[in-house]
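Let's study a protein:

===
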Amino acid sequence: MRKRLPAEWEPQDGVLLAWPHQETDWRDDLAAVQAVFVNIVRAISRFERVLIVAPEIEPVRARLHADSVDLQRVRLYPMATNDTWARDFGPITIFENGTPVVLDFGFNAWGLKFAADLDNQITGKLTRLGGFGRCPVRIPGLILEGGSIESDGAGTLLTTSTCLQSPNRNPHLDRGGIERALADLLGVSRVLWLDNGYLAGDDTDSHIDTLARLCPNDTIVYVRCDNPADEHYEALCAMEAELRGFRTASGVPYRLIPLPWPRPCFDADGQRLPATYANFLVINGAVLMPTYHDPQDAAALEILAGVFPDREIIAIDCRPLIVQHGSLHCVTMQIPQGVLP
């Protein structure tokens, strides 16, 4: 049986989000972050469906209607949630001999850092509510977050050792064991490991989607710090050197495209926040890119337009999102074509 983990830029049925509410960590910034979610839903719904889970769906429906979102492309599912990071507790879809299969990996809030009892049940609850129609859903029995892996759709997976080898995720597996599990569950034929690179304020142990992204035509876009006085400079230079050493499946170097480095962002307590342009979302016909009220926003948009010339590049102001240490890609999970009924 041939298994394959699709690339994000392949055709999609929709995108999953978990609506921010009063019982999440967003309670002090609820108005600002809900406005960001409205913008995300509006942009995605122009191109494909949006699935939203929330403890109370009628206030969400009313809010989206008031903001002129096309509700014909929105599906709302009532369920309790801990937080909003759908990338990491949402379903990961593979194809088996061309047929989609939803995998419900375990989610323990990035190595037992926070409560995750409700979010860990979301894929299962969506299954029972008919959210995935007749698509098979399996529970692999492994902790794995969507933000920790990048796929080119052809057997190559890009990840970070800091995350996947975290002792609070799958302590029974060493690097070789993890690679064998990824091969068995996802059909991965090779894994590219980054041992360097991080963002201050990141709770995920260096998710790959904050640092480097696989893109079409053997391209990797990545964050580059060009300020030697910045705390990230040495680690990101070391990461860049690792990327230069990577080869495609055919043995040639990747086309490497650096993303700009935004100015440092801080919260009210002076803690640095993980602003990154790498946390973009690819959907049918468009790329949603996070912006941060920064002079480099325009340059990042131009770079992504060159990487995805056949898609509209849509800026989403994500300054409110990074207050809770994530960004646009972190709050979304794409559902590949053939899954949704």
Remarks:
- The chain has a mean pLDDT of 97.
- DSSP finds nine helices and 19 strands in the chain.
- The two ends are 24 Å apart (CA to CA).
- The chain has one domain: 3-336.
